Amino acid sequence: MGRQALTHHHGAGRFAAAAVLCLTLAMGACTDMGRFQVSGNEKPPPTIKVTRPAPETSATDREHQRILASYGGAYNDPKLQALITKAVDRLVAASDRPDFSYRVTILNSGAVNAFALPTGQLYVTRGLLALASDTSELSSVLSHEMAHVLAKHASIREEQARRAALVNNMVGEVDSGDANMQALALAKTKLTMASFSRAQEFEADAIGVALAAKANFDPYGAARFLSAMERNAALKTSHTADPRSQDFLSSHPATPERVENAETSARQYAASGSHERDRNAYLSAINNLVYGEDPSEGFVRGRRFLHPKLGFTFVAPEAYTLDNTAQAVVGVRDGGTQALRFDVVRVPQELSLASYLNSGWMENVDKSSVEESTIGGYPAATATASSDQWQFRIYALRIGGDVYRFIFAAKDKTGDAEKSFRETVNSFRRLTLNEIQAARPLRVKIVSVKPGDTVESMSRRMQGVDRPLERFRIINGLDQRAALRPNDRVKIVVD
């Protein structure tokens, strides 16, 4: 949740439907929160230019800027840029369209994702780079995305998105009496248009494996990386449709059949030529890569959320899983019976917090429940609201010109739930200077295995991540039976 999550209260008229939708769907289907404004003074993004720049239109540039805003901006790492440039150059030279130009942007997101625009703009997240174990695996993703461009799949999907936008406009103009259903219809339309078809995926897999093999990359890289992505997705404890959290499998569904087909395709090329995995060069390039969330936009550590740039922290109730999305911090209790949303808005100083809670940005607020108080030394107000299935408790805290909002939802309103909500709000406080300075990102470190080291002992060196043993195996492409050998180079995550 970045500073761009600030907005004026009167620009949030649709918040009620969106908030109720996000909460009732356990924060799982809310992708387009237009009330948040993106700063217009960002520096031009660092990109990897291959051959000559791909032709751009104002529409392409707008889409590029939207992608940057959704995925935390671009990630600048000269070593990685050089490695990816070299890989793309090899793939372009081996393709049937050596004249076609591609531009690759590394996105500053911990999600495992990659995608392409019809103009040849390719995007890959640092989360995907952290998961890949060698250049052949990365190249399998790049060649897969290039295949979508060459086979015109990206153009077809763009046309589908245009049609979806028309449907969205039509739905938005309907004066529906049920705002939740209206928002749900919009969300479903957007999500159904997000994926390539099954046939397109298989075609891109086949073209991609052939292209990687022709460029002398190990053709089995695709099957290995598809398997790694499935294992990584299974490890995730929370599921949101926020773009920064969505992974490659959200828009490129992987199945055992796809892994099988990728292996079958690879066998056709395995015997011909010398195929490289290029593991050592790849590991050297990703050494010190930021892993997971970028602390400058806030980050989660267990049940605690910290935002060094804005200078605050709070702790979610017991049994909650927190997720820092582009628009808000969202959390769901195990079992899905409770949820929370936390964000920051700008509210005019002359508007009291009690008046703000009654101003209509959330529907069905019980006006008689509004109370003003002080929390942690800051002016605050609280109120209740309800829908058919959920009971809401809202808190607003004012610090300067900003208002910090907690929205809690519970299927059943109980004293214990109310107590846990209150405790979370009371845990909200400013970070100390030492805490702000100590908020460093997690990073990938490449280390050598020494005699006596095991998977278990190496995983104990992992810091700041959940399920370190399983995560160590997954990021290093190790199955349950794999053993380490002295002098092997492996990835660990450290603070």
Description:
- With 495 residues, this protein is α+β, with helices and mostly antiparallel strands.
- It is built from 17 helices and 18 strands.
- The chain has a 7-stranded antiparallel beta sheet with strand order 9-10-11-15-14-13-12.
- A hairpin with a 4-residue loop joins strand 9 (320-324) and strand 10.
- It is elongated.
- Mean pLDDT is 79; it is low at 3-54, 162-194 and 237-245.
- It is an enzyme of class 3 (hydrolase).
- Keywords: Hydrolase, Metal-binding, Metalloprotease, Protease, Zinc.
Estimated structural class: alpha+beta
Give the overall form.
elongated
Low-confidence segments, given as residue ranges, are: 3-54, 162-194, 237-245
Report mean pLDDT, rounded to a whole number: 79
The multimeric state of the shown protein is: single chain
Helix content: 25-40%
Distance between the termini: 21 Å
Which strand order does the major sheet show? Answer: 9-10-11-15-14-13-12
Characteristic key phrases:
Peptidase_M48; disordered N terminus; 495 residues; 17 helices; elongated; seven-stranded antiparallel β-sheet; 18 strands; metallopeptidase activity; alpha+beta
Summarize the SSE layout with pairings:
Blueprint: H1 15-24, E1 48-49, H2 58-70, H3 78-94, E2 103-107, E3 114-116, E4 121-125, H4 126-131, H5 135-150, H6 153-173, H7 179-192, H8 198-214, H9 221-235, H10 248-251, H11 256-270, H12 279-286, E5 290-291, E6 299-301, E7 304-307, E8 312-315, E9 320-324, E10 329-333, E11 338-346, H13 353-357, E12 371-375, E13 378-386, E14 391-399, E15 402-410, H14 415-426, E16 429-430, H15 433-438, E17 442-448, H16 455-459, H17 468-475, E18 489-494
Parallel strand pairs: 2-4
Antiparallel strand pairs: 1-2, 3-4, 5-17, 6-7, 7-8, 8-16, 9-10, 10-11, 11-15, 12-13, 13-14, 14-15, 17-18
Domain Peptidase M48: 80-264
Keywords: Hydrolase, Metal-binding, Metalloprotease, Protease, Zinc
Cofactor: Zn(2+)
